[in-house]
Amino acid sequence: MILLTCPNCGTRNVSEFRYGGEITKRPNPNTATQAEWANYLYVRKNVLGVMPEWWCHQSGCGQWLIAERHTKTHEVLKTYVWEARPQE
Amino acid sequence: MWKLIRHGLNGNKPLPRMWRTHDLKDSYDVVIIGGGVHGLAAAYYLAKYHGITNVAVLEKRYIGSGGSGRNTTILRSNYLTPEGVAFYDESIKLYENLSVDLDFNVLFSQRGHLTLAHSDAAVRTMRWRAEVNQIQGVNSSLIYPDEIAKLCPHLDLSEHPRYPILGALYHPPGGIIRHDAVVWGYARGADERGVHIHQLTEVTGINVENNKVISVQTNCGTIKTGMVLNATAGWCSLICDMVDVKLPITSHPLQACVSEALKPFLDVVIVSGSLHVYVSQSDRGELVMGASIDPYQSYSLDSTLGFLESLSGHMLELFPSLSRVKILRQWAGVCDMTPDYSPIMGFTPVEGFVVDVGWGTYGFKAGPVSGKRMAELIATNRTPDLIAPFYLGRFEDGALIGEKGAASVGH
Amino acid sequence: MAIQAAVGRLPETPSQVINREKIVDFVFDGKTYTAYEGDTIASALVAAGVMTFSRSFKYHRRRGLLCAAGACPNCLVQVGDEANVRSCTTPVQAGMKVEAQNAMPSLDVDVMSATQLVDSFLPAGFYYKAFIRPQALWPTYERFLRQAAGLGKIDPDSEPGYFDKIYKHVDVAVIGGGPAGLRAALAAAKSGARVILMDDQSSPGGHLRYRMDEIDGLPAYEYVAKMAAELVGFSNVEILTNTTAVGRYDRNWVGAVTGNRLIKLRTKALIVATGAYEIPLLFENNDLPGIMLGSAVQRMIHLWGVVPGARAVVVSANRRGLQAALDLIAAGVHIEALAEMREEPDADLIRKLSAEHVMIFKRTTIKRAWGIGKVQGVSLESLHSGQIHEFPCDLLLVSTGYTPANQLLFQAGGKLRWNEQIHEFTLDMLPSDVFAAGEAAATHLLEDIEREGELAGLQAAQFAGFGGKIEKVTFLAAKVEERRAERIPWTQIHIAEDEAKKDFVCICEDVTRKEIKQSIQEGFDSVELLKRYSTVSMGPCQGKMCNINAIHVCAHYNQKTVAETGNTTSRPPVTPVTMGALGGRLMEPVRVSPMHDWHVKHGAVMMNAGLWKRPDHYGDPSAEVRAVRERVGLIDVTPLGKFHLRGPGVPGLLERVYTNRWQKLDVGRVRYGLMVTEEGVVLDDGVTARLDDDFYYMTATSSGASGIFENMEWNLQSGWSYDVHLLNVTDLRAAMNLAGPRSRDVLAKIIQGVDLSNAAFPYMSVRQATIAGIPVLLLRIGFTGELSYEIHTPSGYGLHIWEALLKAGEEFGITPFGVEAQRILRLEKGHIIVSQDTDGLTNPFEAGMEWAVKLDKQDFTGKASLLMANQKGVTKKLVGFEMPDGTIPEEANQIVRPGNGPIGLEIIGRITSVRRSPTLKKVIGLCWLPTEMSEPGQEFTIRVRGQMKTGRVVPLPFYDPDGLKLNS
Fold first, then answer.
1. Contacts of B131 in chain C (CB under 8 A)
2. How many CB atoms lie within 10 A of CB C604?
3. Is the CB of A34 less than 8 angstroms away from the CB of C868?
4. Range of A15's domain?
5. pLDDT tens-digit map of C790-805
6. In the prediction, which pLDDT does C524 show?
7. 8 Å CB contact of B262 and C84
8. What is the pLDDT, as a whole number, of residue C306?
9. Which residues of A touch B398 (CB under 8 A)?
10. Which CATH number is C726's domain given?
């Protein structure tokens, strides 16, 4: 079973977490074109490799965290809260 | 049958090869990526109905090694939306004649399909599906525990379970099939008509000039072509990345397992959406069982213990007498999920690049019809009405298909 | 009364595991047999002279004991209501009812065995080529095929039994308690790691348990028992016997089964020391009863004191084959001949065998066996000259090779590679936390096995953080590498030029070599396709017995090497596991309110609402509706999602998650709120009350509660910078709704601290007060359409308040009401239920809730989607309707018009809610219609139970359109 490290609770089984999906960038809803908005809502990179994604420690402390996880080997390279994310 | 007897009497002279191997040609009129039921069916119908035989089917492993060989072989057309019902109904009709059409027994067994309802809301959804089905000419009805008991006496229909069975959508034409046989039959039919099937041939790139496909690169060489059909499952995003076509798709594992062989006791296919279980008993006597997709994106084909645990628990809620039945083997496939639980078929912004992707957990059911209609699309350069609702642009247009409610455990 | 005594037993020895003092009777196929305590079903049956254990899958051939290790399909039996029980690993219990499987009508006379007479008409995949025309007959053919399918039987009255699960966490887990596993566990334990050792037998020792040869001056079984005893002395070691590890999953998550219990183990480092499977040889009639693997014979002799024959022929290709021959001699069996496949077999053992006057043929294999119902003789063939020697026998011992039991290593991601030097598959590229030792790594010589075990133990401990013996590890690693390079083959596989009759590659599925050849000719030339077409390795053994032979045969016909041919995927579980053990105790949680017992006691009919149990009604929902409309009623609404929101950022958060405006909600006021997804789809609704400057109270639907809470948390934790503290109080608060024209009168009797007058406490406002000293929150809202108060109180006081209200309401005729009455009441008032009246694509404009969407807000979840939807306009609408002729349609009936469909109808809408209103005395409901048909007065056609009925659009709400009741 995949292991994820919650910043508060430590390393736990993935069964304690709710998946939140790929991290997306939300366009300004007041100026976004239909295409930009649809892109944000639906299009996903679906990478084969390491991907930052949201997880919620649902059966634990309720923390939302970001995991950088490999989508084939399931290796989790790191986890962090939003504020600690690497700057673009 | 006579062929078998002749073969037996002939001292078992070698039977003819089902499909041949070829060297990769420099160019093909159509290149189909993916040697599963969708790709092979498209190749077969291109040759059969449209006389297009200069076709290559490229498969990176062996034919049927993806979703076509990993699904739980359930066929049905009892969908929720009129467009979904019409589409899958044509598929079932093609399946009904497939053994004769391919001269290969695909062992289609229309033993009836029951989708159980454990809540008032589920009963309402089942009635909704039954009503839509009946109006679309598909045989479905809502039945209650007394009738369910006759079709499946081993189910626990009492008040005792945590979620008692309140009713079921009964779909007599639904059933199971030998999935590999469908792949092999189409492969043979396509091969007989001149299609080249290339196994162990992996696409590594697609070349586009002036927004038009000109060639396909593979680990075995480059092929010139003006028409590429992406008929892959599990990896469709990676193929589309090669031509920069963006997809509203995430890939998730879907797991399944079989039990040891038992004397047949389960005639119908049983599906429970609330318990995330579907089960049928194959003609070999094995229980073939599956659940809903894993919640996270993944390209992994590894199985999980958690799947076996939850599936077994839920199976025993339905069938308490099976607690000593043993699981023999588990496996996983990769499913490409779309936001509206409906596939994406048709043209893309790149000329000469068409897609038949996003098949979620329901691709095998649709193999024949999507093969036939994608062949028609390629041959006529226009989208057949039956698959028009499933166009790629629907997400931007806000024209999603309302199948989500019925298909979340869509088996 | 036993009709057959346990006969043919050897004198007692210390290696035996049977207790001859305790005799147990059991029944096999109607006959009673006697066994000793410690016997398996198989050992007792062999001792009693039984040779046929089962009938094979396809041809119904007789099959006898082959591997005695739980791997092969031959000894599968039905035990009571349990199908497919491996009799060779299942202990006999007194009174056990054992039956043979797949035999019709009996094991001795099986009519289905006639199929082998027509086998040339039944090649691999014959069913794909038969029964195609006429199509109409296929279901009949299928029924016949299906009757022949399967092995054991299901008993529908079988009792579920008790199953359970347990978690374990260790530093080092060792799978397999043979010499490699014991050495590994000892090394890891000495390093200080917490260790678990699992072994699938009743005691550790592996193959040494049934071996007599001397090691360090002790018989093998004693030598290994000493090792095991040393391990028991460590307090940091747990030894689990009768425990089978069935799968290695992501991050060293290991599933294991012991009896009815599933063990879920997380280990830092995993050592796989699972040994090897002895594999059969390919020759004509290689499946006859009386043909046994060498290890099976040794088990029979040394563990249970059973001799499975009197005159034996031995085929050997390694040391253990020769040792097994010596064991037979010691047990008094006459060896007719010994065929040794190697050119230069182990001289020490050959000398001993010669001294016993055994006729030895070197470089010789077996060509065929013959016999009726059991082996009666064999033909041996010289691999040099082709010369044939024939011998009679009643036991053929085959000990010619091994395949490592490396499934766990494969599951861990190891890469299989064919090793031509030793004729076995080995695994490399193991992950850094997985180690292999001994026969699982294709090492068979004891001293090498022990060294590999010790190395793996040290390395695993080191990986888990218990290091320090770096020099020793380096030394052992070098030595192991050196020895591995010098390994000689223990496995010989001989594929004769021509296929013989009935040489079974796969005994589970009855696949012969000829069928494999034919499948390859037909194009199924890769191992994976071959497996799927011929079904080789698809049966109960999952390839343990047949895989290596199948790959060799495949390579042979493809004229390729085994390395080029490759292997198929090994999938979990390693051995079959019961669904009971996997499912464990069935634990489906139930959520109940503090008033649950009261409901049950007062005759409530309970219903499931997600995880909650709720009263559907107390006998007469219509009467409950009338009570609310005319007097006063009380409903338990505890399942509502309930949240505390505190902090200066609350209005901002509410603006974000709701579609309507929240900046100006005064303290003491309540507002309805609607939530949509980013796609603009109606998600949930509820109310939020402002209790204090920075303190708000929110409710959500019971099914949406946890999701809504997590989504709000996401909004707080994903960079939106709202200063809010959120608390989910769903489980901490009981809630009930007091509804009806007399509700104020009821409250007035028992409430303190609040002025209930309409002016002081108007509709859509909130007050905090006390009832009998208990703090309560009063929300004056009206889902039912009547004057009503939703009362929230700490869960522990829920029942107290409930009963206090009922008591106070007695004089007004208060009536408890359930979900069904509430559904009618809300429908009369025209309120929607999200997800019943809406679906996965509904936006608020279509649902007639545009009043709750403020598109001029700066931003909110779903804003852009709703901007676009608003621009596009709606094509369908949710409207109210009534049935002029009084027909009651069913929810989900479709609204149709004439069209091109198969029955001449086109679907244009559907009914989402419908009830006969006890208040209005007519049939009312909500339905979806095309916008152009949605004006009040317009009529439409509904297909109700196949009949066409007319409905008419009417304005909403049906009841009290001006809201006088709510504001009264």
1. 892-894, 910, 943
2. 22
3. yes
4. 3-84
5. 999 999 999 999 999 9
6. 95
7. yes
8. 96
9. 34, 38
10. 3.30.1360.120
Same domain, C271 and C287: no
B164: phi > 0 → left, psi -120 to 50 → alpha, else beta; which?
beta
Give the number of other CB atoms < 10 A from CB of residue C882.
17
Helix (H) or strand (E) holding C480: helix C470-485
Residue A40: in which H helix or E strand, if any?
helix A34-42
Q: What is the mean pLDDT of chain C?
A: 94
Rounded to two decimals, the ipTM of the complex is: 0.97
Residue A17 maps to which CATH number?
Answer: 3.30.2270.10
Q: What pLDDT, on a 0 to 100 scale, did the predictor assign at position C556?
A: 95
State whether C555 and C629 are in the same domain.
Answer: no
**Segment B90-98 mean pLDDT:** 96
Name which of A34, A43, A74 is nearest B246 (Cβ-Cβ). A43
Higher-confidence position of C230 and C116: C230
Shortest CA gap A2–chain C (Å): 6
* Rounded Cα distance, B376 and B368, in Å: 12
Give C685-744 pLDDT, tens digit per residue: 999 999 999 999 999 999 999 999 999 999 999 988 899 999 999 999 999 999 999 999
Q: Do C518 and B14 touch (CB under 8 A)?
A: yes
- How close does chain A come to C863, measured CA to CA in Å? 6
Question: For chain A, what is the domain count?
Answer: 1
CA dist., res. B94 & res. A47, Å (int): 35
**CATH tag, B22-71+180-248+343-407:** 3.50.50.60
CATH for B112-173+250-337 is 3.30.9.10
Q: Residue C526: which CATH number?
A: 1.10.10.1100
Specify if C866 maps to a domain.
no
What's the confidence (pLDDT) of residue B273?
A: 86
Indicate if the alpha-carbon torsion angle C854, C855, C860, C861 is positive or negative. Answer: positive
Q: Which residues in chain A have Cβ-Cβ distances shorter than 8 Å to C718?
A: 54, 64, 82
Residue C476: give the domain boundaries. Answer: 164-277+404-485
pTM of the model: 0.95
Distance CA C714, CA C703 (A): 19
- Residues C753-762, mean pLDDT to the nearest whole number: 96
Give the whole-angstrom CA distance, residue C250 versus residue C246: 14
Residues in chain A closer than 8 A to C719 (CB atoms) = 82-83
